[in-house]
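Lab meeting, item 3. Inverse folding demo.
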């Protein structure tokens, strides 16, 4: 049977040769065998080429998917711009008093105190630090609070920023103790964000200690004996919209006292509501219409973005602390445990909130239902923060960095030396970056940045300038403290 097959193949070869005008003597020189051999090699070569082409195509698909995944992740708020193997100071901001990160990542709004020239409100290019506009907003005063500002919107103007210009506030005396400096004047200055032009100005009650902007209105907080009073004013005119008294929130220190260790009160914005910080460290959440939200007293809060507020709530029962979310002025169901801050969340886990219950627990932020909790062996682990990306939760803290899958099972762990503590974990979409504090607790040192793949494999280290003393991701950049040889310090943006 094999001989018949061989003859058939030869006949085919001969016929092929005749058709191309080749003589039979070529066959006589023994070229039939090599021809078949070459044909075999050609057939194998085509097969190998197909396999290689398939591998190349598959890799191209994987590469395209990876590029798409990186590009999608870089659209998420808080994800860093691409990081190389080293960081350099792009620019520094001396005398920084206030900072706002508008949705337009190309611009930063900030207030600085420049020597004896007073405080200035600036819009700067986020990449270069070059000012697009600069306007004075306050006298140079030696207070710990500095100039307070807030971003908002005005009909007919668009995006604006309002600042409280006053000479009152908390200051430090010669003995290092805090005291209240009474105000002699207080006014609100409103500037357009596009060019810095002033669009409104009005006087504010001198007793105001805190200041925040939300929904076309300014809220100021002041003491009234043992109570705190929150008053909302129209952003454009200063006309009063509403007034709420928070009974007992002001503590025992009466207005006008200048005793040592004076504790200030303030009001900020988060979750579509005003957050009033009381002297005892607790918080009261007040909706934009003046409604005080239950629970009336929180003990801690974080604002991962402008529309979300995470509030820790005191609880005296056996289950301990509670955590609740406020969004658009609406309070969600409280869940068990203390809030764990989420630095980056790409939405791949849905709407979740994390707490310290059972080591680390993921809860449905809308219903309050538990998604998962870490295993019993992880119950003693402490997590200071989490990062959610590509369907994985990365929890970090004194225990190092741990990656959890959708069901809360451990995918991998990245341990750190006993003397090292991660201060934060971030990503640029391609790698994870673990910022490690290596100081001895006495003198701050240059932070160390370890790079990892999303699978937990080491991916090198990122060099940090020797004059940087701390490092934290803000928006899409690392920010740090620059300490010069003469001991002067300023805030720096790195890239």
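The presenter then showed the designed sequence:
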């Amino acid at each position: 049977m094999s001989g018949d097959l061989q003859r058939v193949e030869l006949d085919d070869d001969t016929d092929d040769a005749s058709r191309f005008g080749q003589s039979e003597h070529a066959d006589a020189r023994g070229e039939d065998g090599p021809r078949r051999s070459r044909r075999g090699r050609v057939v194998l070569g085509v097969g190998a080429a197909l396999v290689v082409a398939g591998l190349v195509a598959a890799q191209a698909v994987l590469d395209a998917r990876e590029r798409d995944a990186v590009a999608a992740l870089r659209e998420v708020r808080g994800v860093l711009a691409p990081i190389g193997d080293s960081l350099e100071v792009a620019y520094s901001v001396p005398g920084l008093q206030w900072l706002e990160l508008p949705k337009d990542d190309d611009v930063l709004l900030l207030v600085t105190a420049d020597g004896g020239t007073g405080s200035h409100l600036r819009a700067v290019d986020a990449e270069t630090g070059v000012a697009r506009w600069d306007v004075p907003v306050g006298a140079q005063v030696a207070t710990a609070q500095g100039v307070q500002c807030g971003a908002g919107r005005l009909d007919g103007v668009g995006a604006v920023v309002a600042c409280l210009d006053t000479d009152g506030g908390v200051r430090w005396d010669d003995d290092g103790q805090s005291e209240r400096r009474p105000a002699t004047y207080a006014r609100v200055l409103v500037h357009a964000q596009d060019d810095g032009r002033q669009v409104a100005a009005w006087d504010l009650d001198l007793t105001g200690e805190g200041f925040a902007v939300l929904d076309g209105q300014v809220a100021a907080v002041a003491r009234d004996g043992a109570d705190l009073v929150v008053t909302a004013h129209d952003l454009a005119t200063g006309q009063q919209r509403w007034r709420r008294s928070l009974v007992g929130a002001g503590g025992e220190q009466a207005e006008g006292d200048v005793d040592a260790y004076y504790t200030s009160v303030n009001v900020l914005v988060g979750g579509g509501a005003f957050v009033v910080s009381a002297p005892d460290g607790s918080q009261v959440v007040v909706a934009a219409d003046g409604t005080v939200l239950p629970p009336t007293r929180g003990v801690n809060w974080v604002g991962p973005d402008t529309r979300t507020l995470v509030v820790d709530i005191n609880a005296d029962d056996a289950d301990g602390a509670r955590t609740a979310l406020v969004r658009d002025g609406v309070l969600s169901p409280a869940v068990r445990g203390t809030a764990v801050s989420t630095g980056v969340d790409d939405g791949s886990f849905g709407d979740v909130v994390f707490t310290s219950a059972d080591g680390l627990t993921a809860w449905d932020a809308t219903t309050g239902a538990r998604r998962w909790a870490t295993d019993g062996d992880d119950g003693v682990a402490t997590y200071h923060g989490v990062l959610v990306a590509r369907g994985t939760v990365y929890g970090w803290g004194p225990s190092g960095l741990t990656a959890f899958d959708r069901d809360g099972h451990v995918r991998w762990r990245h341990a750190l030396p006993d003397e090292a503590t991660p201060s934060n974990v971030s990503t640029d979409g391609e790698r994870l970056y673990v910022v490690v504090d290596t100081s001895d607790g006495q003198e701050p040192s240059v932070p160390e940045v370890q790079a990892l793949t999303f699978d937990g494999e080491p991916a090198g280290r990122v060099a940090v300038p020797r004059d940087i003393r701390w490092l934290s991701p803000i928006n899409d950049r690392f920010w740090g403290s620059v300490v010069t040889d003469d001991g002067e310090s300023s805030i720096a943006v790195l890239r």
